[in-house]
């Protein structure tokens, strides 16, 4: 997780909470396209294939507590 930027970590937290790109964008005051870019870069950095796997990593890392 250290390789992620602060913003990517915030987006990852949203994924872990099960939020859509649109909801993450609204929460962080970003465009949906920007969130999609962050998600794409995160998937590569985290070496996972999809947003579900990334969300599970967020949960395992303690970014999401529910």
Automatic annotation (TrEMBL):
Please report the stretch or stretches of sequence annotated as the HTH luxR-type domain: 1-62
GO MF terms on file? DNA binding
One short Pfam name that applies is GerE
Record's superkingdom? Bacteria
The keyword Transit peptide appears for this protein: no
The record ties this protein, via SUPFAM superfamilies, to: C-terminal effector domain of the bipartite response regulators
InterPro entries given in the database record: Sig_transdc_resp-reg_C-effctor, Tscrpt_reg_LuxR_C, WH-like_DNA-bd_sf
Q: Which PANTHER family match?
A: DNA-BINDING TRANSCRIPTIONAL ACTIVATOR DEVR_DOSR
Q: What is the protein name for this chain?
A: DNA-binding response regulator, LuxR family
Native source species? Actinokineospora spheciospongiae
């Amino acid at each position: 997780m250290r390789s992620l930027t602060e913003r990517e970590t915030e987006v990852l937290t949203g994924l872990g909470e099960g939020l859509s790109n649109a909801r993450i964008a609204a929460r962080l005051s970003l465009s949906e396209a920007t969130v999609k870019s962050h998600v794409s870069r995160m998937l590569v950095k985290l070496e996972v294939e999809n947003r579900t796997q990334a969300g599970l990593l967020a949960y395992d890392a303690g970014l999401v507590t529910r």
